[in-house]
Design goal:
This protein has about 425 residues and is mainly β. The protein contains 2 helices and 29 strands. The chain has an 8-stranded mixed beta sheet with strand order 14-15-11-10-23-22-19-20, covered by helices on one side. It has a 5-stranded mixed beta sheet with strand order 2-9-8-4-5, with no helix packed on it. A 4-stranded antiparallel beta sheet has the order 1-3-7-6, with no helix packed on it.
Amino acid sequence: MFLNCVPRFVRTSKAAGCLAFAAAMSFLTSVKAQIPTIVAVVPANEATDVSPTAVVFTFSETMDTNATMATFQEVSNAPPATLPTSAVWSADAKTLTCTPISPFPSPDEIFWYAKGKDTLGKKLQGQIEGVFYTGSGSGADSNRQAYTEFNIEIQRSYQQEDVGLPMPAEGVARASVFLAPDLTASAVSLAQPTGVVTNLFSNLAVPPVFWVEDSGTNLAALEAAWPDGPYLFDVQGAAFGTVTVELDLSKPSPPHVANFAAAQGVDPAQAFTLRWDTFTNAARTGGITVYVANSGNSSEGVFSTNLPSTVQSVTIPPNTLQAGANYNGILIFNNSSGTNEGVYAALASQSAVTYFPLSTVLGLSNAAWSDGTFSFDVTSAPGQTVIIEYSATLQAGSWITLVTTNSVSGRVTIPDTPPNTSPYRFYRARPGS
């Protein structure tokens, strides 16, 4: 099961799209003792003309490293592109260093979003998102959107554990307003089609962000509370009056990985083609996102791509994945629509997300025979425990453990001197615990 650190939203806009992979959070958490917050970020929020080789977050409390992550997005893309990073924690679990897999694009506006909890289970609060500007001459005036965005997003999440259909996991609904940099607002309210009126929460990010979010495992109840129809935003303090976002989109079919079994034994040295069933109910502006990340921390993305809604497969290049490793796979179907009124845009989206496991096999190579000794290399993820077994017959129950070892560097050489009385000896390697 993937319990945390997974993308939530797929967006087709610019600055609002910065939340494309932000996981759902509860912003009304009652806490005791110390609330975990971000006390420092390097580069600082709104930093300009920077070219960071890493982004460093410092937290006020000891964090749960398996549940805390940061997501980065390139704002200039449409839809915004997620920028995979590798994450390293300090020994005291208070400092998170995120290094981009590829250098941050430049010049550009890079948006970040953090989520997580401390070791006592208290959720990260305070300023959890920000932006910095890369490249010479970059900055808020040169890169930031010059209009305001009003957004309604509905997402349904599913879990696929076998070749069968994915099972419902959770639903999330979110309303948000991203004000243009020259505007301020004292409050924003939302009137839903059900007649319920809700005040949105404000954020410290620049430009100001207002939002409200609802989530739960009862998808029917969520859909009843957030049905199709007009959503009316009332911005107080800005000259908009009432802005309507019309949610009238087909609900995407739950993504289903068609070759699930093959995805559990991928040879990382070869290209692997991931396949899925047809995206039914796709809108004209529908799209598909595929994301693969290291198991246990989905901020450590290793592969991501955005595709048209008609595509039913994607090929992961050879040597993208490590041997003998487990990964979190995410397959997203998204329908979106919007209008642009010049000074503001009104956007709506419906998405379905399926989480699934993906695993690679151990690699065996460089077989050699010298002076009565047979040797070969085993490749795996660094630190992986590897069990080497041999058999003379390949029959069930005939496998005998030759050695159990920890592959510190990801490659280990296995020597064996078989007796002359054994005409055949077969070898296999499997991950240990």
